[in-house]
Amino acid sequence: MPELKRPMINDALRLVRLYWGYSQADLAKDLDLSQSMISEIERGAKAVTLDVLERYSGKLGIRMSQLLFFAEELETEPAQRRGKLLVAGHVLKLLENLAPVNL
């Protein structure tokens, strides 16, 4: 069976979630979706509906058109560049955790 191409909107929503520092469970709660639904969307197992896109948009303060544009930009990036974006999110989170706490 040929491998299906994963839509970039799914990757874009995952990267945006990671950038804002949400776990799947936290974002699911805020979007009134199940954590398994978020996981399925991010893996490309479930299609992204306009309703879901609108929920992400409202929660994260990003216009739906910007989310779609970001997904289109990811489509044109080579795979190694997309991987760097994912790693960058983890590095930022690590640095935030290591930063001294202001007393």
UniProtKB/TrEMBL annotation:
The keyword DNA-binding applies. One of its GO terms (molecular function) is DNA binding. Keywords: DNA-binding. The keyword Secreted does not apply. Residues 13-67 form the HTH cro/C1-type domain. InterPro entries: Cro/C1-type_HTH, Lambda_DNA-bd_dom_sf. Gene3D superfamilies: lambda repressor-like DNA-binding domains. This is DNA-binding transcriptional regulator, XRE-family HTH domain. The lineage of its organism: Bacteria, Pseudomonadati, Pseudomonadota, Alphaproteobacteria, Hyphomicrobiales.
